[in-house]
Amino acid sequence: MALPLPCEHPMSMPSTRPVDLASPRRRLARPPAVALWAPEIVLATSIAAAPARRAVALAEPASRPEALVTRLDTTRSVLATLAGARRALEPVAADAHRRAEEAATTRERVAATIAAYRAEAALDDVLSGAWRRMSALMEARGLR
């Protein structure tokens, strides 16, 4: 068996091509790292108005005659409460004011003024209660 000569070994053979370590002359085609989304924009050639539709009104429970009668009765009750309070407290307040004007001493005048303030405070309580009830009725009707 013959051993190859050192110059005949394929690994030791000199390369026939020169090695160019410079950058390649043509660029390699690579996809971009970030792909931007470009939507297609379509414009309408003409704009037509939507057809007019008739408004539909449903008969909600609040719109029925029974509910209306109930709301009217509640309103009458609130107004009657106000009128009754006015009738009851008006003479008390008038008497307290009259006593304050006719008072001979400071003590009588202070007592009459306190009585007038109490009558006005009672009327204020009735008014604020009526206001709360009327506000609740208005909210139920959608007026607020």
Question: Which SSEs are present, and which pair or pack?
Answer:
Layout: H1 65-102, H2 106-141
Helix pairs in contact: 1-2
Structure description:
- By secondary structure, this protein is mainly alpha-helical.
- The protein has a domain at 62-141.
- Helix content is 51%, strand content 0%.
- The chain is built from two helices and no strands.
- It has helices at residues 65-102, 106-141.
- Helix 1 packs antiparallel against helix 2 (106-141).
- The longest helix has 38 residues, at 65-102.
In brief:
The chain has helices spanning 65-102, 106-141. It is mainly alpha-helical and 144 residues long. It has a domain at 62-141.
Oligomer: single chain
Task: Encode the helix/strand succession as letters.
Answer: HH
**Global Rg:** 50 Å
Low-confidence stretches: none
**From the helix content, strand content and strand pairing, which structural class follows?**
mainly alpha
Strand content: under 5%
Span between termini:
113 Å
- Please count the beta strands (DSSP E, at least 2 residues each): 0
Helix content class: 40-55%
